[in-house]
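2.7 Reproducibility. Because tokenized structures are sensitive to small changes in the input, we list the exact sequence used for CCHC-type domain-containing protein, including any N-terminal residues retained from the expression construct. No trimming or masking was applied before prediction.
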Amino acid sequence: MGIPCLHALACIQTRRLNYEDFVHPAYHVQTYAKSYAPPFRGMPGQTQWEVTPYPGPLPPPYRKIPGRPSTHKRKKAAGEDEDKQPVKRAKRQNRCSRCGALGHYKPKCPMPPPPGATGTQLIV
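Resulting structure tokens (single pass, no recycling of outputs):
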């Protein structure tokens, strides 16, 4: 690639050589400065483009990717959630399956269970 790997740099250092001699000239600062020295004009804006009879580009077709959906959510922009209000709903009350009253479950029901419904039967 033009830049020595870490192992080569270690060998260059142990021999006390100049590592800049082993880097390709394309990666030198002088070469970079020469390539951007001549001025260049930027592209004209979209309003200055030629009008063509061809239709504009379309977005790529939607493809459903196979597999389980990703669990990573996108990062929201600053102030994106400020206008949202949490939904406030009334809490759903418990309904007892034994007496049908609201506010408790069957194990906490104040009414006594019917005889023989406890799961243990007396053998007489």
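DSSP finds two helices and no strands in the chain.
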